[in-house]
Amino acid sequence: MTGDPLVSIRCLVYNHEPFLRQCLDGFVMQKTTFPFEAIVHDDASTDGSAAIIREYAEKYPDIIKPIYETENQWGKGTISKSMDAAMHPNSKYIALCEGDDYWTDPNKLQLQVDFLESHPDYTMCFHRANTINDETGEENNAFPGRVFRNIQSRDYHSTELFATWTVPTASMLYRKECQYYPLKYRYRCLYGDIVRVLSAAEMGKVKGFDRMMSVYRIQPHGITFSAGSNDRFIMYSPEHYLFIKDNFPKVDRKVMNQAISSRFWIRAWRQTQRKSQIRDIFYSVRYDFWPCSKSLLFHVLQKLKRLLKRDTFIE
Question: Across the strands, what pairs with 288?
């Protein structure tokens, strides 16, 4: 298909060899009335990911546009700039799909583009996704699978999108302008997905579809669900939530403050220095007293329960 691509797919790959063919097949199977491109960024994988990307780039040169890194760029924060530079300047929409997720519907892009083309007041749309546990191969019925499978055909507001991890990454299609929403204190941001979602919600309306068109893969050793990533998120999440509060005023302030308070309270009990712990408790109470009071009430009730059991045993 000739002409400039209407959609640029951004696909980040790092050691995704076991899943990558399924991901890339989801791109090349798309049936559209418009050209599109897939910027596939291999971040110096140590497995066979780069070889698979080369194979697909040779077979589908009009679609697969590869970037090969010789040194890992994730920690340097330069990946987004590389992918921005590689995208066609005239593309209008951006879709996301990381190398371990995949699309299941060949009409996904066409359906989403048709909606945004006919609804200029909307900046983003997304859809239902299945969630698979990579270790067991089974569907995930807890969070986030429960949320992803129950996305409805309706508008979603910023507060709802923030309060619940609502949007599967591989389901998103948004206008390119959302990529350049001005952000303050960007260094505080831990995860970019929520930034894209809330940026779109600040700039226009966001629509959900109840059609299942992708799969989100849970990997216990991946970026999101590994123990190390969870620890890192706990220790830096208060600043991450403050970053969101500073940049996205459409998110309800009460909900935002409760989230910030909760994150300071959780981190307080991970601190190894007394001074840091007291500081985090202070900030938790400052933003919202409820997380602190709820936790204290829980500990008091647990202590009373133990005392009652001891008294019963003595009698």
Answer: none
CA distance 137 to 151: 22
Q: Can you count the helices (H) and strands (E) in the chain?
A: 11, 9
User: H or E segment at 214?
Assistant: strand 205-218
Query: Reduced to 3 states, what is the DSSP secondary structure of residue 129?
Result: strand
Amino acid (one-letter) located at 222: G
More confident residue, 226 or 305: 305
In contact, 179 and 87? CB cutoff 8 Å: no
Indicate the residue type of 270. R
Give, for 139, the enclosing helix (H) or strand (E).
none
Interhelix angle 290-314/253-268, nearest 10 degrees: 50
Residues in CB range of 176: below 8 A, 6 or more apart: 8, 91, 92, 93, 94
Instruction: Return the H-helix or E-strand segment holding 64.
Output: strand 64-68
Q: Residue 289: what pLDDT?
A: 74
Residue 159 half-sphere exposure toward CB, CA atoms < 13 A: 9
Predicted confidence at residue 155, as pLDDT, reads: 98
pLDDT at residue 189, as a whole number: 82
What is the pTM for the complete model shown?
Answer: 0.86
Whether the Cβ atoms of residue 294 and residue 261 lie closer than 8 Å to each other: no
CA proximity to 48, closest of 99, 4, 97: 99
